Amino acid sequence: MMDQYLSIIKNNDINPIDLKTEYLVNPLAVDVNEPRFQWTLVATDPLKHNLSQKAYQILVSNDEQSLAKNVGNLWDTGKVVSDQTNHIHYKGKTLNAGQRAYWKVKVWDQEDKESTFSTVAYWGNALINWTAQWIGAPVGTQKNALKNIDEIDAQLVKSKPALMPVLYLRKHFTCEPTIKTAILYATAQGAYEVLLNGKPVADDRMSPGWTDYHNTIQYQAYDVTELLGKDNALGVILGTGWFSSYVGYRHQFQLYGSNQTALLELHIEYHNNEKIVIKSDNTWKVNTGPIIYSDILMGELYYQSRDIGQWSSPAYDDKSWLPVIIKPIDPKVKLVTERSQPVRVTQEISPKTRREIKPGVWVFDFEQNMVGLVKLHVPANSKSTRIQLRHAEALEKDGNVYVKNLRSALAIDTYVLDGNHTKAQDFEPHFTYHGFRYIEITGFPGEPQLTNIVGRVVHSDTPITGQLETSSPLVNRLHDNILWGQKSNFFSVPTDSPQRDERLGFLGDGEIFVHTASYNADVSAFFSKWMRDVREAQSSAGGFSNVAPRACNVVDGAPAWGDAGVIVPYTMYRQYGDLKMIEDNWEAMNKWMNYIGSQNPNYIWTKRLNNNYGDWLQVNANTPKEVLSTAYYGYDALLMSRLAAASNRTEDAKKYTELHQNIANAFNKAFVNSTDGHIKGETQTVYLLALAFEMLPEKLRPLAANNLAENIKAHNWHLTTGFIGVGYLCPVLTQFGHNDVAYRLLLQNTYPSWGYSIANNATTIWERWDGWTKEKGFQDPSMNSFNHYSLGSVGRWLFQSMAGIDTGSQRNEVGFKHILIRPNPGQGLTYVNASYKSINGRIDSSWHTSDKKFTLKINIPVNTRATVDLSFAGKLYEVGSGIYDYNNCDLD
Ligand code: RAM
Question: 258 burial class (0-12, 13-18, 19+ CB within 10 angstroms)?
Answer without folding.
Answer: middle
